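User: Sequence in, structure out. Go.
Assistant: Echoing your sequence, followed by the structure tokens.
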Amino acid sequence: MAYSFIPSFFLLHPHSNLYTFFMNENPTDNLVVPQSPFKVLILHNIPVLPLDHPDADSEHEVIETVEIIENALAEHGVRFERFGLAKDLGPLIQRLNSDPPDVVFNMFEGFADFTETEVHLAGLLEWMKIPFTGSKSQALAVGRNKALAKAVLQSYGVSTPGFFWVNNADVPENKLGWPVIVKPATQDASIGVDQGSVVTSQYDLVERVKLLLKNYGPPVLVEQFIDGRELTAAVIEDPEIIVLAPSEIHFTIRNKGLWPIISYDAKWKPDSVEFEGTPYEYPAKLTPELLEKVKDTVKRAYLALGIRDYGRIDMRVSSDDTIYVIEVNPNPDLHIVTGLAISLDSANQTYGVFLENLVTRAWKRGP
């Protein structure tokens, strides 16, 4: 599918309903598309959270994303089937043994109440020697543990805000300075992040850690809060590593006295003040010098964690243009209006071509 009509500059929230406009354009409806020589199994998690759960939006989005991916792959002649994985692995193993796919499109994000399964699934595919898209189990294991990922970044000389992690309610004295931001160390999609995440006293820090331990378990990450510009940049391989044009998040919520952070509401709740107050600008307005520094930082972070095929790096830039990596994301969101998909034009690729290349490269690479 060609999305040549995506503007080169706009302000857009990454989970707006703009995808309905994109997906209604169907330039190949009347064309005969050659079929791929391989068959793909699109593997995704079946959501386990009820729709009224506070974290349900982030988990249920995978179903919508898979449908969008199916449409794009079909338009490029890629043969596929879909498999929704529940917690019983038996049907999946039977399916993989009885009719093994040539390649798995790995959209499995782990179960919301058992997030480690994202790593386990990749390990299972490696064990069964089935080619799959995205990062291998080791990179996923490091990437899903924010504290471990930051330690790896530091060992590779990539700047990241100062931090420590906590495994129980015995919270050590904060020596990073105030404020700090407190996050669940093994969650993604801004789960567990809200305006109360930024704290300015030891008492509030202890109370926040207790809350996150209760809701998400250990470890809890305590991180120096960098008050600066927030940038995000995606990476793809074609086959060389390509850093796509960065986006910037603008924090107009500052005007309402709120902390400039991407909270869960800012990412997933369209009717919230934080959602409306955190628009994305693509491409980000950066000096040539800063752009080169950003791209270098992004590439080094991508390589440090051993990410494969595609990823996303989130950063803060301080007033002196120091770049701090705040999160590294293997297998980031592939929804058509998220940053990776939107920034593909900077590599002269469309969404459909990117997805076709992704499964073709995995097929050719083999297990």
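User: And one key feature?
Assistant: The domain at 33-133 is CATH 3.40.50 (Rossmann fold).
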